[in-house]
Design brief:
This protein is of the alpha+beta class. It has four helices and ten strands; from the N terminus they run ααββαβββαβββββ. The strands form three sheets. Strands 3-4-5-6-7-8 form a six-stranded mixed beta sheet, with helices on both faces. Strands 1-2 form a two-stranded antiparallel sheet. Strands 9-10 form a two-stranded antiparallel ribbon. A hairpin with a 4-residue loop joins strand 6 and strand 7.
Length: 202
């Protein structure tokens, strides 16, 4: 019996589907007409990502870290919890907390485009925060990232953004430190200030 003849598909049908990259303007238009409903989303290098639901422990930890940072970063800074930061036209993440230079009035008509410190509270998102988010923040020159590890009750500190061909977005942090409840941390922005790790954990 003769083997069936192989049918060659037209190039348009056989080629790998083209990925469609989103940008800030497109995301805003889709959000305005309710495409995403009540979903919490962020834009990461042209991809729309649905964020994980916020559980009680995550929420309480975020509130405690926010209150601690508000005491430390006084005049001249804004604590920006769970709000978008426009790192580029194709990347608008929503960190759990961003510490910004300026006043609240500075951001009434435009999103912040950088931060002196990003904080992610990690429970189910730990791997994403360590890899995807850390590489993204390093790529856009965020000088310091804190990951509050809810499960292990530790603070992971990332500094010195650098090029890294093996990292997800081509950049990583050259320095990583892990601190426990008995330790204290001084933000790069405020080197003379000491924050107890206990004040960041629940």
């Amino acid at each position: 019996m003769q083997a069936p003849e192989k049918i060659a598909l037209p190039e348009s049908q056989s080629a790998t589907p083209r990925r469609f990259a989103w940008d800030a303007e497109m995301l805003q238009k889709m959000d305005a007409i309710g495409i995403f409903g009540d979903a919490r989303i962020e834009l990461i290098e042209g991809e729309v990502i649905e964020m994980s639901p916020i559980g009680p422990r995550h929420a309480v930890t975020t509130a405690k870290v926010t209150a601690t940072l508000q005491r430390v970063f006084d005049i001249g800074y804004v604590i920006f919890p769970q709000n978008p930061v426009k790192l580029s036209i194709r990347s608008i993440p929503q960190p759990d907390i961003a510490v910004l230079r300026g006043t609240y009035a500075d951001f009434l008509d435009t999103l912040p485009e950088t931060a002196v410190l990003m904080v992610e509270v990690a429970d189910s998102t730990l791997a994403t925060d360590r890899n995807d988010k850390a590489s993204l923040y390093a790529r856009y020159g965020i000088p310091e990232l804190w990951i509050v590890n809810v499960a292990s009750e530790e603070l992971e500190i990332y500094r010195l953004p650098r090029r890294d061909a093996l990292a997800q977005h081509g950049f990583s942090y050259g320095l990583r430190q892990v601190m426990g409840r008995e330790d204290a941390v001084s933000p790069l922005e405020l080197p003379d200030v000491s924050i107890s790790i206990t004040d960041l954990l629940v």
